[in-house]
């Protein structure tokens, strides 16, 4: 949900900032709604509908436009009327990533729609949305610890973060706030995270700090980070607790809004405590 590409495409559906604005995504009270799963999904549907209308219902070209740029695909479509994505006149002029992306998306959709024919088992997923009214102040980290695994082997941290994208993991969410959870977790929250006990333990664990000597050693060893494949400035800032992407970008002279970094680049971890 918090992904940012090297080109600056942001959120679960990877909208560039200006494209997001066209479809109702932008900043609301300082929050970039490209991170919002519901709003970005609706914007994505509207975007694909616009591409399908522009490209005479050609699904492959619409997907190519989504990945490789609507301008590029639109020009190819107009220059080669009646040609499809697979025709050499169009296919050969698309980026290699787009050439691979379109058949991969189509294959994934086909397997999902015909799972039984291919011996695939897509286990049941409870997608019912729910929410709770927080009875006490809590951070997202505290809520994830308090709720625990509750039927999910790897816990619920990522799900809770994705459903509440406007909160950073350490933000204190005040009592009385509506907090989105899967419907099945509503009773878990009220049984485990309201009274003293587990909720207090969660707060204690989150607020725990390593001894000063260990903190100093960790800080000394983590003064720089070499960018690896798939790294974004946001993921590095979260990993090393750098106080946000903007602060880390400013310290390294990296301009926004895309904060583009490249593999092999060394990032100075100024002001980072992790």
UniProtKB/TrEMBL annotation:
Gene3D superfamilies: 1.10.530.10, LysM domain
SUPFAM superfamilies xrefs: LysM domain, Lysozyme-like
Domain of life: Bacteria
Segments forming domain LysM: 223-269
InterPro entries, sorted: LysM (IPR018392), LysM_dom_sf (IPR036779), Lysozyme-like_dom_sf (IPR023346), Transglycosylase_SLT_dom_1 (IPR008258)
Similarity-based family: Belongs to the transglycosylase Slt family.
Protein name: Transglycosylase SLT domain-containing protein
Organism: Alkalisalibacterium limincola
């Amino acid at each position: 949900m918090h992904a940012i590409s090297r080109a600056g495409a942001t959120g679960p559906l990877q909208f560039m900032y200006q494209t997001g604005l066209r479809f109702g995504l932008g900043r609301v009270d300082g929050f970039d709604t490209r991170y919002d799963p519901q709003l970005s999904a609706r914007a994505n549907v509207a975007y694909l509908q616009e591409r399908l209308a522009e490209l005479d219902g050609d699904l492959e070209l619409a997907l190519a436009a989504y990945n490789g740029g609507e301008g590029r695909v639109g020009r190819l479509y107009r220059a080669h009327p009646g040609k499809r994505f697979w025709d050499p006149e169009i296919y050969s002029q698309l980026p290699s990533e787009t050439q691979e992306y379109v058949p991969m998306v189509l294959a994934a959709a086909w397997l999902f729609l015909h799972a039984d024919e291919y011996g695939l088992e897509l286990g049941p997923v409870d997608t019912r949305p729910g929410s709770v009214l927080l009875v006490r102040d809590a951070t997202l980290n505290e809520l994830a610890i308090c709720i625990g695994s509750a039927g999910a082997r790897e816990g619920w941290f990522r799900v809770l973060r994705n459903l509440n994208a406007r909160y950073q993991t350490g933000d204190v969410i005040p009592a009385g706030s509506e907090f989105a959870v899967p419907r099945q977790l509503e009773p878990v929250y009220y049984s485990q995270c309201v009274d003293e006990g587990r909720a207090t333990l969660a707060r204690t664990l989150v607020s725990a700090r390593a001894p000063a000597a260990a903190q100093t050693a960790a800080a000394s060893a983590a003064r720089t980070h070499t960018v690896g494949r798939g790294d974004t400035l946001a993921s590095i800032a979260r990993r090393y607790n750098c106080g946000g992407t903007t602060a880390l970008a400013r310290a390294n002279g990296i301009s926004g809004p895309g904060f583009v970094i490249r593999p092999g680049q060394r990032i100075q971890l100024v002001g980072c405590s992790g």
